[in-house]
Amino acid sequence: MRIRMTTSTFRIGDSFVHRIVELDAPSSPVLEFLPALTPEQFAESRAWLKSQRALDDEDRVLICYQSYVVRTPQHNVLVDTCLGNHKDRPHRPLWHQRSDNRFMAGLAQIGLAPGDIHYVLCTHLHTDHVGWNTRLEDGRWVPTFPNARYLFSGIELEYWLDRNAKTVVPAIADSVVPILDAKQCDIVRSDYGLSDLLSLVPAPGHTIDHYAVTLGKHKTDAVFTGDLIHSPLQARWPELSMRLDHDPAQGIATRRSFLEKYCDTPTLCCFAHFPSPSVGHVKRWGDGYRCDYVNE
């Protein structure tokens, strides 16, 4: 297992994209993570997966938990907020009651403090994408980014608030509700245009109203995937659904559309969970696709 903090930076026109990695860690065995993956497909893929550091020696999927900071001439925008500290996640030991400074050190490494973030974009409201929305202060959860507006999809938010009202969903209770209470939330459609450079793009399937984020006046300079895809195996075979997808069929359609749209284009694709360096260009590979990574 490998755990480390990393930042990397890419310049795109007048904007900068920074990766902040909070954790690299194994998830479940690949045949559990992607239930439709056949043993034959896996055998064919094992070598290249290991060469990309996407698979460990126990055949577990290696996941990168990270955020992207987009610095445009106007705004500092944080896309997703990883795991967070002091969060009660007993079912996930590596996520449970974390107390390290990797994420905040990464933010400082790129020259920013929490008060410098103008917007927080949560592609969806799963635990590993909302953790640093809040921090613990005097026994209360308060917004980590005091000057930011947090953008939640209205459909996504309604779904999770309804579930939380029936049975407490810890990530919603400690990382989403406090943002509402602090009145720092903007409830938007998943096709919302934030500025002339940043737009939300509907990408449902993994969750009910998941969105991706595009950068550029023509929405083609870069795209931030969120969890519409988790593993390079899902590029090679887009029909492979991750085991926790809300609507697998919709997720497959979203993934195919994404991969086909950006295949063989100059758009920089910034993947949420692909192994480092996580950023690259989508290329055709037989009847599927692959990511050709780029370095900063």
From TrEMBL:
<dbReference type="GO" id="GO:0046872">
    <property type="term" value="F:metal ion binding"/>
</dbReference>
<dbReference type="GO" id="GO:0016787">
    <property type="term" value="F:hydrolase activity"/>
</dbReference>
<keyword id="KW-0378">Hydrolase</keyword>
<dbReference type="InterPro" id="IPR036866">
    <property type="entry name" value="RibonucZ/Hydroxyglut_hydro"/>
</dbReference>
<comment type="similarity">
    <text>Belongs to the metallo-beta-lactamase superfamily.</text>
</comment>
<keyword id="KW-0862">Zinc</keyword>
<keyword id="KW-0479">Metal-binding</keyword>
<dbReference type="Pfam" id="PF00753">
    <property type="entry name" value="Lactamase_B"/>
</dbReference>
<feature type="domain" description="Metallo-beta-lactamase">
    <location>
        <begin position="64"/>
        <end position="273"/>
    </location>
</feature>
<protein>
    <submittedName>
        <fullName>MBL fold metallo-hydrolase</fullName>
    </submittedName>
</protein>
<dbReference type="InterPro" id="IPR001279">
    <property type="entry name" value="Metallo-B-lactamas"/>
</dbReference>
<dbReference type="InterPro" id="IPR051013">
    <property type="entry name" value="MBL_superfamily_lactonases"/>
</dbReference>
